Amino acid sequence: MGVFRNLFKSKAKRVNAQKYRLGMSRTRAGVFSNLKLLLETSQIINDDLFDELEELFIMADIGVDTVIKFVNHLRDTVQLNNISSPRDLKEIIIEEMFKLYVKDEIVSSNLDIQKDRLNIVLFVGVNGAGKTTTIGKVANEYISKGKKVLMVAGDTFRAGAINQLKIWSEKVNASFYAKEAGSDPSSVMFDAIKYARENDIEIILCDTAGRLQNKVNLMKELGKISKVITRECEGAPHETLLVVDATTGQNGLSQAKIFNEVTNITGIVLTKLDGTAKGGIVLAIKDELNIPIKYVGLGEKIDDLEHFDIEEYIYGMFSDIF
Amino acid sequence: MAFDNLSDRLQMSLRRVTGKGRLTEKDIEEMMREVRLSLLEADVNFKVVKEFTKVVKEQAMGERILKGLNPGQQVVKIVHDELKNIMGEKVAPLTLNMIGITKIMMVGLQGSGKTTTSGKLAYFLRKNNNLKPLLVALDIYRPAAIEQLKTIGAQLNVDVFEMGIFEKPQTIIKKAFEFAVANGNNLIIADTAGRLHIDEPMMQELIDIRDILKPEEILLNLDAMTGQDAVNVASSFHSALHVTGAILTKLDGDTRGGAALSLRQVTNIAIKFMGMGEKLDQLEVFHPDRMASRILGMGDVLTLVDKVTENIDEDDMMNLMEKMMSGKYNYNDFLKQLKMLKRMGSLGGMMKLIPGMNKAMKGANIDEKQTVYIKAIIQSMTKAERKNPKLISRSSSRRRRVAKGSGRSVSDVNKLIQSLEQQTQMMKKMSSMDPSKMNSANTLGAMRNTKTKQKKGKGKNKSRFRY
User: Fold this and answer.
1) CB–CB contact B250 A30 (8 Å)
2) What is the distance in angstroms between the Cα of A77 and the nearest Cα belonging to chain B?
3) What is the tens place of the pLDDT at every residue in A44-63?
4) CA distance A188 to A207
5) In chain A, what residues touch B37 (CB-CB under 8 Å)?
6) Could you give the CA distance from residue B405 to residue A192 in angstroms, rounded to a whole number?
7) Do A140 and A281 belong to one domain?
């Protein structure tokens, strides 16, 4: 069974993985049951099988380039190890997918939050990805750890955005800072940092307006926000998280690329994974840009946000196979 | 522009075929592979891609094509027609009640843009159909969703009906209808909460709302960036509610928008509008045929193909293109080209029709009047000078003579020399377009193609050459 069984040695992990399992059960039922079926009904490993595998991975929204690379790699591995039974292939698929993500590095899904300093986390993303909701959930996590958290309403454009964040702050008992709608988001950040220093805040979570990555002016605005934060607080933003909707297809890659150019993305939050979408594009993002996934959103409730764990993610996708 | 990348790739794969006189089965296989990959990269659903390439391949392999005079063009047409086929032929209008109240229900996943689009639609229908809209806030779950709709309503000066977050949507919609009757609104747009298509209680809520409201239109809002899952989402909403149409949102992004194709093909839901920006007047009627052309970036090429075959002596055109590609381009050709272009109509417009030209020509100004001057300058050259552009570019006394003869300034002559050089270079660029996107095998193939093209010009196959 190799690596995969070892991944789930600890009981705590298994329990946690159950949540992924539940959240992603639809995902699995959609795509990866086919994988099980495919591997069980195939007699030999041949090109047709690899083609079908390619299709299955593409259906999971893993980027086309990454899939082609991955399947070619599988092919080589199969040849190298002289594997002939399709049933043995499943272990290799899982192992290789794990390696694809980890790449012999230590990938942490923890945020860079340190004691005795003002920590600033900036949330960016396209419209409707789920930034504001994610901030509510992240705030909840750190407040329950006893941190003093400030939510900053940096989305001064969309109607109702400020109030949406305010309601979240009341729900989770976070401090809240906003200026009136339509103000310059950079100035909101400036004032918020001042406010945070005066009020002994430990973590600032900054909301920003959703923006499509091809809107040059909006991206410039974001660059300015980030710059102002850096100027006012050295080393900040300590984390810049790109929020990506799991239903997003190949465009996720373009989002990660361009946002990364403007603000140096330190992690991805994959939201809405509780639907039928697979969110496979995050594997392509990790593969091509080496940006790790920090969180996954698995539901609408306040605690439905989990630290990303590649083992659990893979387990969530593949546990039916075993 | 959306779909940019898809059209690039399809153009790449089709260009190789367009230049060919005859297609082998291998050519078609190769091309279908490109088409398949590019559609997949564009997020078109896998099954749709399969179906699409199968149909196109079958048609392309048909005898009709292989025996045809210019198979390349015909394949382009097949791909285009098939794409158009999937996207739907006609603009799908909304069903609006002439008398009484028209009711529209907006549904979709979280974050697909329902609330913003509700506002846009209210604005659109008030402006174009002179209706008096009432926006109804049924999203009692997402914090501040009601306030968002109210803000939009205030911005547009449109009535908004809400009952806070403690009443059930079923109750709210009932009261909203009564309110609309009393208030004289003849359009109700119900903004429902975003939900997952697999969330059964929430889907039941939509069914309840539908049964109470009995809407003329149930519009599914779909994010243009959606990947393979678009089909699941659309078919689930459709089977639960019998969706009457879709609105593709965030199409102003750089997404390739293959979801649009999938949606059409798998569920047959007509796409009625597209969201083109964050402002409330940025909603446009969705034109499927135009969109199909836009996806391909080929609609214009088709027009070009038609125009070229109508107006141009094929041999002339062939020689010209060949010379351009080979870099042996001189003033005689320039003159010939001017004449041809004149026959075909506006220069600027023509340049836009050539794929890749649009980008390449950015910054190069084309003035119609200039053609007269250019003609005069060229006609003031000796025959030897026209044949060999280097004579002119190397000798200032020749340039002065030509300037005098044509009544233009020396700097005008210099400009012409420059533009000839530019054009030669541009053509070189075109013939080796974007090698970064092609894998090395393809590049080799393309290079081989250009070479054979040059040879063909002199041989018996020369009339087969087409751009």
Assistant:
1) no
2) 23
3) 788 888 888 888 888 888 88
4) 11
5) 64
6) 73
7) yes
Low-confidence ranges of chain B (pLDDT < 70): 1-23, 62-76, 289-327, 340-369, 428-467
CB B21 within 8 A of CB B314: no
Dihedral-angle region of residue A128 (phi above 0 means left; psi in -120 to 50 means alpha; beta otherwise): left
Assigned token pair, A254: 């373009």
User: Which chain B residue has the Cα nearest residue A24?
Assistant: B198
CB neighbours of residue B218 within 10 Å? 26
CB-CB contact of B219 with B107 (8 Å): yes
Answer yes or no: is A148 within a domain: yes
Residues A278, B259: C-beta atoms closer than 8 Å: no
Quick one: closest CA in B to A68, which residue? B37
Alpha-carbon gap, residue B224 to B2, rounded angstroms: 9
Same domain, A96 and A154: no
A234 lies in a domain? yes
pLDDT at A3 over 60: no
Distance from chain centroid for Cα A40: 32
| Rounded Cα distance, B191 and B210, in Å | 12
Q: Are residues A41 and A128 in the same domain?
A: no
Look up the CATH number of domain B4-87: 1.20.120.140
> Cβ of B148 and A127 within 8 Å?
no
Nearest to B454 by CA among B330, B336, B323: B323
A305-307 and A293-297 strand pairing: antiparallel
Supply the range of the domain harboring residue A53: 10-102
CA of A232 to nearest chain B CA: how many angstroms apart?
30
| Whether A63 and A140 share a structural domain | no
Domain termination site, one of A53, A72, A102: A102
**Model confidence pLDDT, tens digit, residues A245-282:** 999 998 999 999 999 999 999 999 999 988 888 788 99
From B41's Cα to the closest Cα of chain A, the distance in A is 6
Residue A129 has pLDDT above 90, yes or no: yes
ipTM of the complex: 0.84
CATH class of B102-286: alpha beta
Q: What is the pLDDT of residue A247?
A: 92
Give the predicted TM-score (pTM) of the model.
Answer: 0.74
CB atoms A247 and B226 under 8 Å: yes
Share the mean pLDDT of chain A: 85
Which residues of chain A have a CB within 8 Å of the CB of B106?
none
Dist. CA B309–CA B317, nearest whole Å: 10
